[in-house]
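Notes from hallway chat w/ T.B., transcribed later so I don't forget. T.B. wanted the structure written out for a chain they're using in a teaching module, and asked if we could keep both sequence and structure tokens in one place. Agreed to drop them here.
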Amino acid sequence: MPVVTPGPQRGRAGRARGYVAAVADDKVGLRSERGPVLAAVMLATALVAIDSTIIATAVPSIVADIGGFAEFPWLFSIYLLAQAVSVPVYGKLSDLYGRKPVALFGIALFLVASIFCGAAWNVWVLIAFRMVQGLGAGAIMPTTITIVGDLYSVQERAKVQGYIASVWGVSSVIGPTLGGVFSEWASWRWIFFINIPICLAAAATIGRRFDERVERSRPVIDYRGAALLTSGLTLLILGVLEGGQAWAWDSPASLAVLGAGAILLLAFGFAERRAVEPVLPLWVFRRRLLLTSGLTSAGVGAILLGLSSYVPTYVQVVLGSGPLVAGFALATLLLGWPIAASQSGRVYLRLGFRGCALIGSGIVLAGSALLLLLGRDSNVFQVGAYCLVIGVGMGLTAPPTLVAAQSSVGWADRGVVTGSNIFLRSLGSSLGVAVFGAIANAQLGSRGADPVRLSTAVHHIFIGLVVVAAVMVVTVALMPRGDRPGPEPEISGSDAAVDTPAGRG
């Protein structure tokens, strides 16, 4: 098992303890000794953060140029699916080979995919390279978050969260704004070409500034598990998105696709039990803390992408506003999130991870319920205000649940745990977009985005968001009590599962 170390140390636990000791007296910030690495993480995060918002306001322009309104949910689902199924693989690879090579590979893949997305000549080519882009994002997000988990203690992460949150805050404004500008005054293709300089800058910064020493061993990669997981989820999402469109829900084709997906996922579960180095260790789902935080993360993903996919289209088609105004409505959601996230550290240090997340999930539920008040006569300021409320709730929910999961294991399993949490968020996003897309297509059929029908479809989607938010409150409430931040374990997650209250819960 490779271990990243800042200097000569002995023993697995000794390495982890020595790493923390080596940086414990250093200040937290961009001018500190760890500042360049933090800057590199922020730059890589910006790459994914901007791309997650910039495409939403451009959907009407893309459809007008290359067609495919019924297929546009795939632009989100295929990206999120590729990210979801690859995150556990990259999490395991980062534990085997180190964080740096995995992050650089992800950035390179993202760069190539962005170029081909910008050059796409029809919607299916665009969808195909969005999948490749998702594979790149699947390497970037868990690796950068794991680097932060390696580099900073739980108490320090409460401060570092402000820096990471600021990236999402700036991106929440820049992303939708650029998407609107390119769609209205240039070409939607520039929403992908703009990634080129960001990719180059992020790769150069990580390549120069982030140093790690990794003791390499002969890795055992769970290729069978990865293949079963990818195939099963692909068929499941295909069945949900195309059900009622390409075939009837009760048709043999629908039953075959959904049934095959379920069988492959069941086979994946059995394969992971026998795998030497499982891509998604089942012990992650046996720990109450990791399971509840993961399910909460899935809910966060579903709500985020449900809003990102349909709020801009609702504002443009139903309310008759332009792409820039639609970008403003979405920006409030993504601006409220990092503002609240930057303060979440203070809250969970005082109230515990569960207490902070309970407050946040309750706010998410209230904001989602407010969306039900929207209709054809609403205005964009109402949309923005309600999205802001949801964003604030997200900022108080997502960070404490992820940090709680990371803090329950040692270095050797942190990549897997982080990857599993992000995997469930991406899975929630992809399944959420698929389900909401099926709801929209059931209302719209092949008749296109008629304002009246679209308003009805979006209202049904908002009802779905309320249901997801209510489930999130329940999963947060089921998190173990007494989860205030404390010393982090220096043992493997599988051992910690029986040595901590969370593991016994």
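Follow-up for T.B.: Confidence is low (pLDDT under 50) at residues 1-25, 487-505. Might be a good example for the class.
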